[in-house]
């Protein structure tokens, strides 16, 4: 059995690499003991803002065996999205993860393919694929699987590649060889905390979601609170400030996923272009993009708020 575990683990990691994942780590499925009080405390302080879905399925969030019956292993995967080129300086900005095709579609296809290979090569393996769309604590699992550590900005950091990556999981009912956890390498650095214009990083390793620019520009359906006027800088969808200032991101390398390349018009658009954007242009530029989440009305609301 030991040999089989090693063989199956090697097979899964090799296939993940072939599919273009940056890295793959595996941990045993079970209750996330350390995360439970943290999550409870965070919710009690209303740091989820209007993201009420964060309060749902509390038990499933902390225990994948309640999410996928009979599960034994959590296979965590990272997919790089760091772009070769970014938007020009003087413009309204999008978070880099939203430049290309919506990552949910791109990663779901890769995960389905990975699960199919596991079933073809190993036999009857049950499991489910997750991309940020179910109650799974992605960063906790990725760090348990040795893919990095959760930084002071609460994003997963890797010494090799920084933090510009998506996290996804396969939760399967197969025992595998497990990776060991990595250590924290933030040290005394507070660049992310110091740079956040809305003071959303309440304390190291705790982000107040209800003050985060990404929350205001994507999740919040009401008007952005007026006290944050002038603090959103030029971010109209998401925000990368805490990542852009992080020293570990000097190791970011451009992704090799064609679907993450931006629409040709996107990088050239000026502030004036964005201010005059029509619904037709919005649909053309963001045809398969995650920006569709905020809709045309949401994006124009954000731009109007920044303009003041």
UniProtKB/TrEMBL annotation:
Belongs to the QueG family. Residues 177-206 form the 4Fe-4S ferredoxin-type domain. GO terms for cellular component: cytoplasm. It comes from Bizionia argentinensis JUB59. The keyword Glycoprotein does not apply. Monomer. Keywords: 4Fe-4S, Cobalamin, Cobalt, Cytoplasm, Iron, Iron-sulfur, Metal-binding, Oxidoreductase, Queuosine biosynthesis, tRNA processing. InterPro entries: 4Fe4S_Fe-S-bd, 4Fe4S_Fe_S_CS, QueG, QueG_DUF1730. TRNA binds at residue 221. Catalyzes the conversion of epoxyqueuosine (oQ) to queuosine (Q), which is a hypermodified base found in the wobble positions of tRNA(Asp), tRNA(Asn), tRNA(His) and tRNA(Tyr). This is Epoxyqueuosine reductase. [4Fe-4S] cluster 2 binds at residues 196, 212, 239, 242. Binds 2 [4Fe-4S] clusters per monomer. Its cofactor is cob(II)alamin; [4Fe-4S] cluster. Pathway: tRNA modification; tRNA-queuosine biosynthesis. The keyword 4Fe-4S applies. Cob(II)alamin binds at residues 61, 132, 156, 167, 214, 239-240.
């Amino acid at each position: 059995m030991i040999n089989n575990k090693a063989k199956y683990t090697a097979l899964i990691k090799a296939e993940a690499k072939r599919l273009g994942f940056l890295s793959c780590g595996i941990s045993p499925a079970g209750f996330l003991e350390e995360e439970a009080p943290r999550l409870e405390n965070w919710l009690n302080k209303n740091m989820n803002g209007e993201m009420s879905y964060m309060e749902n399925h509390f038990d499933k969030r902390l225990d994948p065996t309640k999410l996928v019956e009979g599960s034994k292993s959590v296979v965590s995967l990272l997919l790089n999205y760091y772009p070769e080129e970014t938007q020009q300086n003087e413009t309204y900005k999008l978070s880099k993860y939203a430049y290309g095709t919506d990552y949910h579609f791109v990663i779901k296809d890769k995960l389905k393919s990975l699960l199919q290979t596991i079933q073809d090569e190993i036999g009857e393996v049950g499991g489910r694929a997750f991309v940020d769309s179910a109650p799974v604590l992605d960063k906790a699992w990725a760090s348990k699987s040795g893919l990095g550590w959760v930084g002071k900005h609460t994003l997963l950091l890797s010494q090799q590649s920084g933090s510009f990556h998506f996290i996804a999981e396969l939760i399967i009912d197969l025992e595998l060889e497990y990776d060991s956890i990595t250590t924290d390498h933030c040290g005394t650095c507070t660049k992310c905390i110091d740079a956040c214009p809305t003071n959303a990083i309440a304390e190291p390793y705790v982000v107040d979601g209800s003050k985060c620019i990404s929350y205001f520009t994507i999740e919040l359906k009401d008007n952005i609170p007026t006290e944050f006027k002038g603090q959103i800088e030029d971010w109209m969808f998401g925000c990368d400030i805490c990542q852009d200032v992080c020293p570990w991101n000097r190791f970011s390398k451009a992704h090799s996923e064609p679907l993450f390349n931006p629409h040709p018009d996107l990088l050239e658009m000026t502030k004036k272009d964005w201010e005059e954007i029509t619904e037709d242009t919005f649909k053309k530029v963001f045809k398969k993009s995650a920006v569709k989440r905020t809709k045309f009305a949401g994006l124009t609301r954000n731009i109007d708020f920044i303009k003041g």
